[in-house]
Design goal:
The chain is α/β, with parallel strands linked by helices. The chain contains seven helices and eight strands, in the order αββααβββαββαααβ. The longest helix has 13 residues. The radius of gyration is 16 Å and the shape is globular. InterPro entries: Prot-tyrosine_phosphatase-like, Tyr/Ser_Pase_IphP-type, Tyr_Pase_AS.
């Protein structure tokens, strides 16, 4: 099983021939007992300007000889434009080499109130944009917009746009250790990915 297939397999099961849905662990990731176990396992990262940044190491998995994911490989968090220079320095000290940005094209970029970061601060960091959704799709808007802050959103995202859900998983699988995976808030798209 290749890395992408392994990631997809751990995130989803086929419940019938017609329906592809996230596993129950994913749906409960923010509120259920399994979610609490994952939240407790993750290490908060102190990257100035970046709240909700966490190292995804120490998460339970049957795909590892140790029974858990390795620290220092993948971090998750909110939009990178919030980081101040000291935050970028801390991220590099953690081992940051690449970023997988899950936001749609119209969400990307410096916003009002974001700090000015010299271009040299980002030198050598690979950035890949791999949104798991197309927010211009009328079916996606109909089913997902009302529940974007709910884990239930992923059920519809998988059903409506499975080809787009695969894109960030492939980007993560192809990335080097030291990857930050982020969306806007660091929870709705980032947590499941």
């Amino acid at each position: 099983m290749n890395r992408v297939a392994a990631i997809v397999f751990t995130l989803a099961i086929t419940s019938s021939a017609d329906e592809f849905t996230p596993c129950q662990a994913l749906c409960n990731s923010q509120t259920g007992a399994i979610g609490a176990q994952y939240a407790e396992a993750m290490n908060d990262l102190s990257w100035d300007g970046c709240i909700n940044a966490r190292d995804s190491g120490r998460l339970p998995t049957s795909l590892s000889r140790t029974g858990e994911t390795v620290s220092g490989r993948i971090a998750r968090g909110p939009r990178r434009e919030r980081l101040i220079v000291a935050g970028w320095d801390a991220a590099r000290a953690w081992g940051l080499t690449s970023i997988v940005d899950l936001r749609c094209a119209d969400e990307v970029g410096v916003g009002e109130g974001d700090p000015h970061i010299p271009a040299a601060t980002l030198a050598g960091i690979s950035i890949v944009n791999a949104p798991p959704e197309n927010q211009d799709d009328p079916e996606f808007v109909k089913f997902c917009f009302p529940i974007l802050d709910s884990p239930e959103y992923w059920t519809h995202n998988w059903r409506l746009q499975p080809h787009l859900v695969r894109s960030p998983l492939e980007a993560i699988a192809a990335s080097q250790p030291g990857t930050l995976v982020h969306c806007s808030a660091g929870r709705d798209r980032t947590a499941p990915a």
